[in-house]
Each structure stands twice: as C-alpha cells, then as structure tokens.
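Dear H.,

Thanks for agreeing to be a second pair of eyes. The structure we're designing against is below in token form, covering all 119 positions.
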C-alpha cells in the first residue's frame, strides 16, 4: 500500500466517524481541539496522523473499539518508515499494544530496550 493511499484510508475512516456523529468539519475540529483546516487535511490524506491525535479523538469522541482500531490501523499504514510485517501490525492492534509501545519508546530514548525485545 502506498503512503498516500494509507493516509487516505485513515482520512476516510476519520470522515466516516465525523459523519456518524453528524458533525461538520468545524464542529468536529472544535470538539477535538484541532483546526478545521488540519482536520480537512487529515481527511484528504494531506497530513500524516499521529498517535497523540488518535488518543485525543478517542478521549473526546468516545470511539468504539472498532473505530479506534480502524484509526490505529490507518496510522500504522500511513507511516511506512515503521516497516512491520502485516501480521505483526494486526497482532499489535488486536492486543492494544500501541500504548505499551508508546510508553516504552518514551522511557527508552536510545532504543536499547526496544532492540533487546526484538532480538
């Protein structure tokens, strides 16, 4: 999957979530604390999503488990520099390991512990 296609996959998922809640781009932006232009750029695949923003969306919009996983999946595919085999990505998503990995990354700036886990 090409990076732009992955960002569009995330954007389409975000648009669906916004539409399901009957929010305009501006209304959605106000709820989650981002600008309408930024949300529009995300929906149109012009910006890469971040894990922080997904967490904010989850906190502010009370995403369903399926919605959260869809956004997380879009995030993983939109960041090709994080080359991970597809089955590993699904395992990460199914077992809610993103927060655990984020915490590990935050506490291990040099990546020493992460490298030890991979060996």
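And this is the sequence the design step returned. I haven't edited it by hand at all.
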């Amino acid at each position: 999957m090409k990076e732009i296609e992955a960002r569009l996959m995330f954007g389409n998922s975000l648009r669906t979530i916004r539409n399901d809640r009957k929010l305009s781009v501006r209304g959605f932006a106000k709820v989650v604390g981002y600008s309408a232009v930024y949300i529009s750029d995300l929906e149109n695949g012009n910006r890469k999503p971040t894990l922080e923003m997904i967490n904010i969306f989850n906190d502010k919009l009370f995403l369903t488990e399926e919605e959260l996983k869809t956004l997380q999946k879009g995030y993983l595919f939109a960041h090709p520099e994080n080359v991970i085999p597809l089955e590993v990505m699904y395992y990460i998503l199914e077992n809610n390991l993103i927060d655990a990995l984020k915490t590990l990354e935050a506490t291990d700036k040099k990546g020493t512990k992460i490298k030890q886990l991979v060996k």
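Two observations from my side: Residues 3-20 form the longest helix (18 residues). The helical segments are 3-20, 25-32, 36-43, 51-61, 65-78, 86-94, 98-107, 112-118.

Warmly,
E.
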